[in-house]
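EI: anyone free to look at a 313-residue chain?
SC: sure, send it
EI:
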Amino acid sequence: MDAEEKPLLTYCLVTYNQEKYVRESVLSAFAQTYSPLEIVLSDDCSTDRTFEIMRELAAGYRGPHRIILNRNERNLGLGMHASKVWGELSSGRWLIGAAGDDISLPERAEAVARAAQQYPEAACIWSGCDFIDGEGAVLPRSASAEHGGIYTYRNTIPAILGATVAYRRDVYSEFGPLGGEVRNEDIVMSLRSLLLGEFVRIDAPLVKYRKHDSNLSGKFTDGRDKIERMRFRLGYAHLQQLADLQKYLEKHPEQYRRIARLRRRVSDNYIVSQFCSAFRFCPSCRLHLVIEALTSPRYWRIAAARIWKRLWR
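SC: here you go
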């Protein structure tokens, strides 16, 4: 890629109470080989030393990348925090997402830039990853492939791990901020990406995704508690999706048939996701859920058929 063709990319690292892991995460951002790159280090009013560690590392950085350091005055939550980073603190053509407990390989930003140049219609680029535990050891289950190819998807939303994603700037700017209660921002941004372009998957593992007790998915007391909280989170994401579809339709009324199909699809996906979470996290509920699915109206029958495909493939 010629120097004059290289667009500015933004590496967006968002943190909250991750003092144990944030040093590794920030150093992996500093080690990115791509340039020009701006790195946003943004903390959501942590109560531990997360921000202090980021500030110390930023003060000692002497590399080629531009560093933007931010700490929110109050805790905004994931949706509003991401919106602030994307909308107010960043200026790159592509927004590379990262969390304060994950590690990006040095070539991650470079790979995103190459894929964006190779596939100009891309709105969302994501990669494979290796799962690691709290101590950094690689776990058996990884979301990467051995052959390291690149694949494109259009007119469908593939399964994406949010920790590996990069979005084209207009995926955010075309629709505006996420709602304050949205915590599954990858669900919302995936639909936006579908409306504006295509998906590109880089099979190579470019992220080490950490699984530990402090993960968002690990902060539940039992199966039923996890189900209820996930239903609330999915519900807020679903409402945001419907609002985004309406906003897009107002700008592109000629696509009303497509938007009508997508409304049905996101509603079906909402039902399926609720059912999946209950089926996985509350074994005692499974028989009841299956009976309910098979005897319920249209959405539950659709959900039941897709459940088996998703869980047992």
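EI: Confidence is low (pLDDT under 50) at residues 217-223.
SC: 👍
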